[in-house]
Design brief:
With about 800 residues, the protein is of the alpha/beta class. The strands form 5 sheets. Strands 8, 9, 10, 11, 12, 13 and 14 form a 7-stranded mixed sheet that branches. It contains 28 helices and 28 strands. The chain folds into 3 domains: about 140 residues, no CATH class; about 240 residues, P-loop containing nucleotide triphosphate hydrolases (Rossmann fold, 3-Layer(aba) Sandwich), CATH 3.40.50.300; about 325 residues, Rossmann fold (3-Layer(aba) Sandwich), CATH 3.40.50.
Length: about 800
């Protein structure tokens, strides 16, 4: 590859030219995401691509560096995308063009599923418009020759390294450290350094057994015609193995992966495990899984064993049920790790709803619930959090006892909910605490803003399946979400202060921009009148509490007691007059609010793509059209001024941004993951909303000045956001009193009654161990919501100037 000058563009100084005579093999990346690709210079493929005569009848462009572009409007694109989902990583999947990148890890995942090298190359050539470049073919062969050849299996409490041919095992044993870790058949001890092999045994004598095959009767779900997956098990009639010492498993895995470039696939022969007790659990007859869940599970159990790996499903697509179905298939002791105590409660409830498991076999370990496990002779299900398992400080007696029980037991399945948190340094020790036969990672957003996401390939296993968000939306398994970005100019007083203050205060100013808060209040009122369920997200605790109290709506943050959190969420789900709650970042993950269909975001965690996708996911549960949509459907279809038909959407995502601030830059980066899934953001100017004569709280100049003064009086420390233990390192200070420490926002004790017009007294300077109460009381018993008046309009917000969604609403109200 030779960098050449590229004068035709101002965006990049160089372009990479492919097809150089010196380039003998393609340089595939280890892993990849869309942000890394966007940083690459332009690439010139003109010298390396040879079009086929029938190129018009094929859907793929295959490039020398492993980049693959799919024309989804082609008749055979569906089959091509299904193939690519197993051998490449999706980068961008909008409506007409999909972009994939073949990586070393994606090839590792493909080979681990039993796909041969010849099959990969032949299928690429079948769908490709151009001849598959020789450098890419050589790269595929070079990388795949060492993948999927070796497996580590835990059987009857003993660890075996298996392969379909003797040569791979002999190569592994060529390393002296692995050789010394071997336990020879017929012996109960391992050889020490310098000792010779026993008579009758040698390093090339291995155990021989028949290769396992998938028996559909062993699955906890029925195989449908829609999800017919070929058996990806070994094609060899026999498999060869040798035993290794249990305390050397981590060492052997590390040496194989890092030094010998032979990753060990982790598989569990659960059908032959007679040592560990079986769990009496099956799915209820009323429980039905969807086709994509079935496909993912077939990838996990395709060869009759449980294969460790990661399943990626969109938010709201049923990751929990997928994990539960895997547990019902294996029927061994199950340990589930999730992100919060609320999520623990939800997992337990899902087990009770979807399975017939005895509730006495379900145990929870949180700060408030410490269920002791039964004897090791009985299979159990334990649900806990990452922080509880990774805590290294002094525990209470009850917690320490349960942790000891966990360490003494062999677990059939270890489920990592929101697996993107698992690579955090503090959570890696969980693998050494829990002895698990099989590990399953579940997530919707397999992205991190660091490089640690790559470590999941050996911490958990390869990616087994990743669903297409747009495909599930089109088939009705996800809500149709409309994403909007609202640009709110700063008021003159706030912008003047913004230009002359510290970074900490600048962030509070762009978050608490009065124009942004006015739009937030208007959207809350407008969607509440429609009967929608609304979530307002704010990472800034200052803004969260100030706005929630001012608008008389309940809020949930880390310092709200767990019982009050559950009470608020239950009211939100069950009470038709309880339509809005304010959430901090504690609401980003693992909270089940299926009725929510509106998200308003006023503050966020800088450029986190994961958080943006998780917040959108809060409203992606499938839901029917509302009565309002049905009534206005015909009127909206007749409207030709706006190409977007709002009534075809049943979920709404608003990101409120302060113009001409750093917030705009962060928002652009945050949206990248969602855009790559096929979504798009429309931009709404502030004059799309009739704000002037609506009697909004933050329209009052006195309220704006009061808010500005409070920001000026606050400290300059970047402590306004509550600590996100799971996202960072998992540190916690009081593991048995799991109240997130409430940060200082204002240095003096004050009353928010003056700001809100209410009578709620709250101490802004909270103590480090204080539990905030009254979050639910912020909502009055009777909500005297100001009704949006339609008789008088501002000159700046004429009906004809509004966005069509609001224009249709006001026209209907007038008639």
């Amino acid at each position: 590859m030779i960098p050449q000058e590229y004068p035709e563009t101002k965006l990049s100084k160089f372009v990479i030219s492919y097809g150089s005579k010196n380039q003998s093999i393609s340089l595939l990346p280890l892993a990849c995401d869309s942000q890394q690709v966007s940083l690459k210079p332009f690439r010139d493929y003109s010298a390396s691509l040879n079009l086929k005569l029938d190129h018009a009848s094929r859907p793929l462009w295959v490039f020398p560096d492993g980049l693959i572009i799919v024309e989804t409007f082609h008749v055979s694109s569906s089959a091509a995308c299904e193939f690519l989902s197993t051998v490449a990583e999706p980068l961008s999947r909008p409506e007409l063009i999909h972009e994939y990148q073949m990586t070393i890890f994606s090839l590792y995942a493909a080979v681990s599923l039993g796909i041969s090298v010849n099959s990969i190359i032949e299928t690429l050539n079948k769908f490709s418009k151009n001849e598959v470049p020789d450098v890419l073919v050589k790269a595929i062969i070079s990388h795949c020759k060492s993948f999927g050849k070796l497996k580590i299996v835990l059987r009857d409490g003993r660890y075996f390294v298996e392969a379909s041919n003797r040569e791979e095992l002999s190569y592994l044993l060529s390393d002296e450290r692995i050789k010394l870790s071997r336990v020879y058949s017929g012996t109960s001890f391992q050889l020490n350094s310098g000792e010779k092999s026993l008579q009758g045994t040698s390093n090339d004598e291995f155990n021989v057994s028949e290769a396992p095959l998938l028996n559909p009767k062993d699955l906890a779900f029925k195989i449908t015609e829609e999800c017919q997956v070929s058996n990806n098990g070994s094609t060899s009639a026999n498999i060869y193995s040798f035993e290794i010492s249990g305390d050397k498993v981590d060492l052997v895995t590390m040496i194989s992966f890092v030094d010998l470039h032979r990753p060990l696939l982790s598989e569990y022969d659960f059908r032959s495990d007679h040592r560990n007790p079986s769990l009496d659990i099956t799915l209820k007859h009323t429980t039905q899984i969807r086709y994509y869940q079935e496909y993912a599970l077939r990838m996990m159990f395709s060869n009759g064993r449980a294969r460790s790996g990661i399943i990626v499903l969109p938010c709201g697509a049923g990751k929990t049920l997928t994990g539960i179905t895997a547990a019902c298939t294996m029927r061994k002791s199950i340990l589930i790790l999730t992100t919060s105590a609320v999520a623990v409660t939800q997992w337990r409830q899902q087990f009770e709803d979807y399975t017939n498991v005895d509730s006495r076999r379900l145990h929870c370990l949180t700060s408030g619930t410490k269920d002791s496990l039964g004897p090791a002779s009985e299979a159990e299900i334990l649900i806990t959090t990452y922080t509880m398992m990774a805590f290294t400080g002094k525990r209470s007696a009850s917690s320490a006892h349960i942790i000891n029980q966990i360490q003494e037991r062999e677990w059939g399945l270890l489920i990592f909910d929101e697996v993107q948190f698992a690579p955090a340094p503090a959570f890696r020790r969980i693998n050494s605490i829990v002895k698990a036969h099989c590990k399953l990672g579940l997530t919707a957003t397999l992205v991190r803003e660091d490089d640690l996401i790559q470590d999941l390939q050996w911490l958990i296993g390869p990616k087994l399946y990743e669903a297409n968000w747009m495909e599930l939306q089109d088939r009705g398994y996800l809500a149709r979400a409309l994403c909007s970005e609202v640009w709110c100019p700063m008021t003159s007083e706030f912008f003047k202060e913004y230009l002359n203050c510290s970074h900490a205060k600048r962030r509070k100013l762009w978050v608490c921009n009065p124009n942004k808060l006015k739009v937030c209040e208007f959207l809350i009122r407008w969607h509440e009148q429609r009967g929608d369920k609304i979530l307002v997200f704010s990472d800034s605790l200052f803004a969260l509490i100030s706005v929630a109290v001012a608008l008389k709506r309940p809020f949930v943050c880390g310092s709200v007691d767990i019982l009050e959190r559950i009470k608020i969420l239950q009211q939100f789900k069950q009470n038709p007059n309880f339509n809005t709650i304010f959430l901090s970042k504690v609401g980003d993950n693992a909270i089940d609010i299926p009725l929510a269909n509106v998200v308003i975001q006023i503050s966020f965690n800088f450029a986190s793509r994961r958080q943006e996708a998780q917040r959108l996911g809060r409203i992606l549960r499938p839901k029917p059209y509302s009565n309002w949509q049905k009534k206005s459907l015909s009127a909206s279809i007749e409207n030709t001024e706006d190409p977007v038909n709002e009534t075809s959407y049943n979920a709404f995502f608003y990101s409120l941004l302060s113009k001409d601030t750093e917030e705009m830059q962060y928002a652009d980066k945050r949206q990248q993951f969602i855009i790559d899934q096929g979504y798009s953001y429309r931009v709404l100017p502030i004059n799309s909303f009739p704000l002037d004569n609506e009697n909004l709280h933050f329209s009052e100049l006195s309220a704006q000045i009061d808010l500005l003064n409070k920001i000026k009086a606050s400290d300059d420390l970047l402590s306004d956001d509550e600590e996100d233990n799971v996202l960072t390192s998992g540190r916690t200070t009081q593991i048995d009193n799991m109240s997130t420490r409430y940060p200082k926002v204002i240095t003096t004790k004050s009353s928010l009654a003056k700001l809100s017009g209410g009578d709620l007294e709250i101490s802004i300077k909270a103590q480090n161990d204080q539990i905030i109460s009254g979050a639910l009381n912020a909502r009055p018993t009777k909500l005297n919501r100001p009704v949006i008046t339609l008789k008088q309009r501002s000159n700046k917000a004429k009906i004809s100037d509004m966005h069509s969604m609001f224009r249709n609403f006001h026209k209907n109200k007038q008639t």
